[in-house]
Specification:
Layout: H1 7-20, H2 26-45, H3 55-65, H4 70-84, H5 93-112, H6 124-129
Helix pairs in contact: 1-2, 1-5, 2-3, 2-5, 3-4, 4-5
Length: 134
Amino acid sequence: MDIKEAPEKILFKRLQELAQLTFEKKSDKVKSFYELFSLIVEQATAGDYINFTTLFSRLSYLGTKRALPRTLLSYCHQFRKAIEQKQVDESMHDAFIELAHHVCGKLCQLLWSEGSTIQYKLSATTASYFEPIS
């Protein structure tokens, strides 16, 4: 019997792998985190059969549907927007990698209880770059 692993478990494993990987260019790691972030949001809304035209609309819907914390949603939107508008310069790669790891991890915890024993917390330096919008 072929037992398939649940998509959310695969996404969480990918998050753990990605966090440990070293990339030649940090911009490639930021892009990989963005792709994973998009997949997490898509998987979380896959069963709703709504045609979303943007990641913004899908993320906003998910936030409302699942009552995600405002701070987390703010971080998600800041990450999404910076990548989509190509606002990530080289000096910010480490902060964006940390932010991406944080939002992906928190989403996996809140949506599927994956990695519930892991503490995802931004460093003070990174948190100061990404003030949550109230």
